[in-house]
Amino acid sequence: MSLLVSELKVYYRTLKGEVRALDGMSFGLSDGEILGLVGESGCGKSTLAKSLIRMDGRMRHAGGRVVLDGEELPIADDRRMNDFRFRKVSIIPQYAMSALNPTRKLRKMVTELLASRGTDVDTAELESRMSQVGLPREVLDRYPIELSGGMKQRMVMVISTLLDPSLLIADEVTSALDVSTQKAVARALLGFRESGYVKSMIFVTHDLALTHHIADTIMVMYAGKLAEKAPADVIVKAPRHPYTRLLLDSLPEVGVRYADRRLEGIAGSPPSLLDPPAGCRFRDRCPIAGDECAQDPPVTELAPGHHVACWKA
Ligand SMILES: Nc1ncnc2c1ncn2[C@@H]1O[C@H](COP(=O)(O)OP(=O)(O)OP(=O)(O)O)[C@@H](O)[C@H]1O
């Protein structure tokens, strides 16, 4: 097991009180596994991604542990986390295209970054990884502004994985891309795993179809908690949580016109995480909710690797 997250709680401090963005998340990730993380906007996907690498000043680690390759990550301690970033855990951020320093040519930027980690650039290795994602070596002598959005994205992917981190977090890396560039990025991520540049990966996305293509397992989150986690095929073909089912039903189908079948979303909206209700957080929107749902559902393993938090599953 490369990553073990137990009862992780991460809250945001706001003027109105604390937003419980992650409220007791537990899951594991094996060596070599790609985990797709999906769920509606605001369910806590980015908070989970960020808390595993760099918590911002408004986030508070309210409980729980994160263990990577047998070592506890000091997620609440920004300075101590420095020893782990890039080397053990790395992120391709949500807005990777703007993550590059505009005032530096890329070669200088990479050199400075590695120097700050106490390492030199292995130019041959860097160029070989760039060529693997279709970037010519001349790119190193350009400023970020001289690259297209897709090229910047791929450059950030190469830089984030240069020190062969055990865990890579890809946070919404395909959302701003056209479909063929999305495929290229997905292929590159799979290639990084095959080449051993990263061991395992958390792929955060809204795109269930793309996740199904590349992920081994999919974890569905709802309102700061785990709803369901299972092998990718099981989530798509035999989901057990009512939320996962509705999420899949609300996907648009190519070839079906609005006039023939109205595109249904999931009625209602998620609860406020400032003061979330007791019991199952999906209860108010759930078509099969019953009295027992007033109690918090435990996460149960229905079949090997298939975890569901629902009394009715
Ligand atoms: N800086 C912040 N201060 C207060 N609340 C925040 C902050 N950032 C996020 N939140 C809240 O935390 C919850 C989880 O947000 P998060 O961004 O992790 O969700 P997400 O699933 O990644 O959403 P999206 O898909 O839109 O990126 C939401 O209720 C959000 O409003």
Automatic annotation (TrEMBL):
<dbReference type="GO" id="GO:0005524">
    <property type="term" value="F:ATP binding"/>
</dbReference>
<keyword id="KW-0067">ATP-binding</keyword>
<protein>
    <submittedName>
        <fullName>ABC transporter ATP-binding protein</fullName>
    </submittedName>
</protein>
<dbReference type="InterPro" id="IPR003593">
    <property type="entry name" value="AAA+_ATPase"/>
</dbReference>
<keyword id="KW-0547">Nucleotide-binding</keyword>
<dbReference type="InterPro" id="IPR027417">
    <property type="entry name" value="P-loop_NTPase"/>
</dbReference>
<dbReference type="InterPro" id="IPR013563">
    <property type="entry name" value="Oligopep_ABC_C"/>
</dbReference>
<dbReference type="InterPro" id="IPR017871">
    <property type="entry name" value="ABC_transporter-like_CS"/>
</dbReference>
<feature type="domain" description="ABC transporter">
    <location>
        <begin position="5"/>
        <end position="248"/>
    </location>
</feature>
<dbReference type="Pfam" id="PF08352">
    <property type="entry name" value="oligo_HPY"/>
</dbReference>
<dbReference type="InterPro" id="IPR003439">
    <property type="entry name" value="ABC_transporter-like_ATP-bd"/>
</dbReference>
<dbReference type="Pfam" id="PF00005">
    <property type="entry name" value="ABC_tran"/>
</dbReference>
<keyword id="KW-0813">Transport</keyword>
